[in-house]
């Protein structure tokens, strides 16, 4: 638990989206954070949300977002609102000097993200996006492998896929298919994860160009339901990702180096929250009769005491506590968010321009 010298970071949640249920639990499980308030557009909805998600008895309930932002006892805000509302409310959060943990995608485009980032920098608040899997202990171990020049070598190709099959109700009414709410559709929601995994494997080095794949599927309102892209670096590295609301649940990564490979099938949400595994192989080849592999790939299992979303809250709260003690906000996280958003923009632009290569400029 948080010590008296490092009091738990007091979180307020703005909006009662489904994902906020998961983060409410994560804040409860994180040792250095506490649920302090929730706000919805109606007091009744906020009250029901607090009861359903085991908020502490002394947690405050607000019937407007503004009321929560005016609460001087709140240190940080978790913002799960639709993407189209991010720029308004993220800027408001920052102007109230509250640290901001925000759901992805961060904005509808990089220009909007830069407005949010400017507000955070001007007000000295920490900004982090809600990409949970990068905080899983498994991710750090995988990074050790792909950074090892002997076991993995130099990264040459990276493939990432995230899809899930939305039912008829989802495809008609979910906010992620509505142009006025989450206009980036599957690209902003599912594609964010694939792009982030590619950047992660490439030490967050931006590609030179991005080319959208042919055959994206859009709904009648013009929102992307399925798409993909390839990313290209000057030294010949190539990565691809696909994302879809129209295909069976898949969360795959395959990273191939000159000496080894990394594979996993649940990179966004582990099959089991208390442990997660991944497969590696180094210098594998065929056996003598070409009937099997030598040596065999190995599975690595990583356990965690708290789920990855609570690990994220713990890390965010640690950074906020450091700022309270005089440190500057950690710039790594907003830089990573901006790079992810840049590639989202490039894929969208490539689709709009008939699948032209789009040069990435920081």
Automatic annotation (TrEMBL):
The protein's matches in InterPro entries, at most eight in alphabetical order, are given as: Gfo/Idh/MocA-like_OxRdtase_N, GFO_IDH_MocA-like_dom, NAD(P)-bd_dom_sf
Per the UniProt entry, what species is this protein from, by scientific name?
Citrus x changshan-huyou
Q: Name one Pfam family in it.
A: GFO_IDH_MocA
> What is the top-level taxon of the source organism?
Eukaryota
Please state every residue range assigned to the domain named GFO/IDH/MocA-like oxidoreductase.
Answer: 142-262
Q: Which family does it belong to?
A: Belongs to the Gfo/Idh/MocA family.
Query: Which GO terms label this protein's molecular function in UniProt?
Result: nucleotide binding
The protein's name is Gfo/Idh/MocA-like oxidoreductase N-terminal domain-containing protein
Q: Where is the Gfo/Idh/MocA-like oxidoreductase N-terminal domain?
A: 9-128
């Amino acid at each position: 638990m948080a010590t008296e010298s490092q009091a738990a970071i007091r979180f307020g949640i703005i909006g009662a989206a489904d994902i906020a249920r998961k983060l409410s639990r994560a804040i409860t499980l994180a040792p250095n954070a506490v649920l302090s308030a929730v706000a919805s557009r109606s007091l009744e909805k906020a009250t029901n949300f607090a009861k359903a998600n085991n908020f502490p008895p002394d947690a405050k309930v607000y019937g407007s977002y503004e009321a929560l932002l005016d609460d001087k006892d709140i240190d940080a805000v978790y913002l799960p609102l639709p993407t189209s509302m991010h720029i308004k409310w993220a800027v408001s959060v920052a102007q109230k000097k509250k640290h901001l943990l925000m759901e992805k995608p961060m904005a509808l485009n990089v220009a909007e993200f830069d407005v949010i980032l400017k507000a955070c920098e001007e007000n000295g608040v920490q900004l982090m996006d809600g990409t949970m899997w990068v905080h899983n202990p498994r991710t750090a171990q995988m990074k050790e492998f792909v950074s090892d020049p002997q076991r993995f070598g130099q990264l040459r190709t990276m493939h990432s896929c995230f899809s899930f099959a939305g039912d008829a109700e989802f495809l008609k009414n979910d906010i992620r298919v509505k142009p006025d709410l989450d206009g980036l559709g599957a690209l902003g929601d599912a594609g964010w994860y694939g792009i982030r995994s590619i950047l992660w494997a490439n030490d967050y080095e931006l590609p030179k160009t991005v080319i959208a794949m042919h055959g994206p599927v859009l709904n009648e309102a013009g929102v992307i339901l399925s798409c993909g892209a390839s990313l290209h670096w000057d030294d010949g590295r190539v990565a691809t990702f696909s994302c879809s609301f129209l295909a069976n649940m898949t969360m795959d990564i395959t990273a191939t180096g000159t000496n080894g490979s990394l594979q996993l099938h649940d990179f966004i949400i582990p099959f089991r929250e208390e442990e997660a595994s991944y497969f590696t192989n180094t210098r594998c080849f065929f056996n003598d009769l070409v009937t099997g592999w030598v040596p065999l790939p190995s599975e690595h299992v990583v356990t965690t005491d708290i789920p990855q979303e609570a690990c994220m809250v713990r890390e965010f709260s640690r950074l906020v506590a450091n700022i309270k003690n005089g440190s500057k906000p950690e710039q790594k996280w907003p830089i990573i968010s901006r790079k992810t958003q840049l590639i989202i923009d490039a894929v969208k632009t490539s689709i709009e321009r008939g699948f032209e290569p789009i040069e990435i400029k920081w």
